[in-house]
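step 4 of 6: structure.
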Amino acid sequence: MNKTLRNPYVYLLFVLPTLGLYGLFFVYPVLQSVFYGLTNWDGLTPAKYTGLDNFVKAFNDEDFWISVKNNMYFILFSLFVQVPLIILFSLLISGVKRLQGFYKTTVFLPSILSTSIIGILWGFMYHPSIGLFNNFLGWFGLEPIYWLSDTKWAMLSILVTNAWQWMGFYIVLVLAAILAIPKEINEAAEIDGATGFQRAYRITTPLIMPVISVVVMLSIAGAMRVVDIVLVMTNGGPAGATEVMASYMVNKALRYGQYGYGTALSIMIFVIALLLTAIYQIVFARRQERIEY
Amino acid sequence: MPKVIKKILPHLVLLVYVFVILFPFVFVVFSSLKESNDQIVNAPFGFPVQMAFDNYADAWSQAKISKYFFNSAYLAVGSAVSSILIAAATAYALARMRIVKVSKAIYQFILLGMLIPGNVLFIAQYILIQKLGLLDTHWALYLPYTAGALPFSVLLIVAFMKAIPSEMEEAAIVDGLGVVRSFILIIVPLTMPALVTVFIINLLGNWNEYLLANFFISKDALKTLPTGMVGFRDAFQTSYPLVFTGVVISVAPIIVIYAFLQRTIIEGLTAGSVKG
């Protein structure tokens, strides 16, 4: 029997397709990125080794750091706006008996849709003349706002759309954790006279910290790779106000033909992602003790 | 009295949220049935007076939405099927076959791929596709979609396959079942729930993918729904009803599938993110 499960030919047959594709689309591109990152390749003339020039350039590239800052807005917005709302809505949904399934299904809906379609949809919500928001302002006699083409408002508009798309996904995650808490704990607290608010704040919320921590990690990961919503809604504009790291990198390489610099930027993005993961580990993961019921 | 308020208040807050979620959809459906820009501009949220169903026929033919739709469907399904087949076979080799040391090394090697955040390899992959001469063909999407789903799929399926007790398989092998048939007849049926989960995650991911589709494909006839619709929006800026109609057509199938499979989809997507 062991012989059957040690059949090397079958083993190879089963493993090689994965290794082949993985090698071609992960390993090889990683090596290529490191290689091109050290050159000034423009896609046409032969690549010339330039050492760390690209990285020095990136450190002094103000536009790049603006895009880094915009990625940070995504993280801050999810930490300070989305996460509290996610906890609030999950608590509310877990507390109701009627319509619970309906709420869950509805709030989850946007997260299965294509970001580009959502970008188009919300582009119309922000439309200067037919959009919802300006009509709303109109009722109060306020001047219309050019949401996506005003540098003051463009970033916030995208953040709101992004939150609209993803909050439901996280709510369902947190909701599952809340519903997994044994009923006895809350019942005991209720008998002891704890109000609904006290129970939510002092019992449920601490107990769901592990899943909140997962939500934070997923938000950071999502914020690091955000790009399509920006490309669809503003294409980085107006005047670079909504440019994110990935869109900046793609533009540099594909539009301006600076492949060497573009790949160097991709390495920078990787390093920034690693740094954020480290910070996350220190701030959140270490405090996360295992909770036994 | 306060007790009633206590019961109703959560519903009120939640219904506001549900309204915020659903409003854009109602808005596009209404607008897609209006005859002209004027009707939308005059009463953006009004109920359409004359139902202009012609828009649907127009958008379907003029915008080649049928074409985009077909491209998206066969690329998304094709890649998802390919990755699930390849990933399941590899996961079987890693989790069930007894070449342990090699398996451990391969597992760790694939795990490394999960550390690289999406998009970081985009430019290198673009150069690769260009060198292979695949730009502007569907291979340029099919191959990266299939390959991109592999690390995650393999790791998740390995976890499930490891949890299956070995007695059944051992008994079958003692009775003379070969390794390939043991994989197909015993392990695959037992891991079906995990395979369905991974399949749905990959299918949705491929169906919605925008970045690669946008830069690897420029021929209109080869575009997928996400990029095709953005192109459509930019081309038909003067005819809002048509654009809205396009949005409805491209969202509707997903919503219909979601209505039937909501439990599987919700569980699949959330389980994937927590375990993966």
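step 5 of 6: annotate
 - DSSP finds 13 helices and no strands in chain B.
 - The mean pLDDT of chain B is 87.
step 6 of 6: archive
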